[in-house]
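Narrative of activities, Objective 1.

The group set out to show that a structural description can be obtained from nothing but a protein's sequence at a throughput compatible with the screening campaign. Below is one input-output pair from the validation batch, recorded exactly as produced.
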Amino acid sequence: MPPALQKHADISRNKKKARKATSINTSTANDTPKSPFLELPAELRNTVLEYAAATADEPAVLRPNGKGQLRSTSPLMRVSRQIRDEFQAALYVAAPLLANVKDFNFAHVVAFLNKLTDRGLNPLPSIRKSKAAKRERTMTIALHISANCPLHSDDLDRWLARRNHPTKKGSRIRISYQVYGVHRFSPETCHASITKDQGSRLKTRALEAGARLAIPHAGTPVGEVMRVQKEGLRKMKKAGLRQSRVYWELKQIRKALRKPLPPVMSAKERAQLEWEEANRKAWRQFQRERSP
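Output recorded for this entry:
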């Protein structure tokens, strides 16, 4: 057989084998037993998944770089592609929310709230009647305070003004706050606004006060932000605005600032911090050995 015809015959034979393998795989996939849950009507499946989202142990997480998508650790996200897609849609409707906000940049939270439908902004009647589920939509905002966090933030002012506006989307969602950031003083973790001389004085004061020093320490990122917000609350109280929504919201933020949590770091950031700390210890040890 000429080479050209032999090549054509080989190609035809390979195509027939590929079609046969595809038909075998298709028949095997069709023979796989289907979950009884997927045979339920779509409305009933959605109700079950919305109940599971509303009563989940962990909230759905909204990240600044997550493009508005909610993340969940629920096992339902790993069952199958169809259940994952349907459960992810239920997260937007019924799940408690956790939004990570860095340095009072609420842009991604506002964009997420603006995209929510009326069903997502209010708990469903079927969910509201359940005793195990919460009676209102809730959101926890985790405020991550860095050393470069602006003390007088325009983003925070816009967020408070939005919360005070009754017609804005999400104004009826019950929001609580948590604060993550450096709150124990050290010269290496001062706020960016603290000068070198101020850092030295704060270090001396911290050593003198010892265990009596209140947390968060002055000069730390969390401490400086709390000082400014405390001053803002004092001015609002003096102006007779204690009954306003802005005062109540700012008071919730200050309450969270008084009980901060350690900063959340990635594995890379933690390794960098440990490397810098090891270098500082080695340098101090070297200086002690050289001193007479």
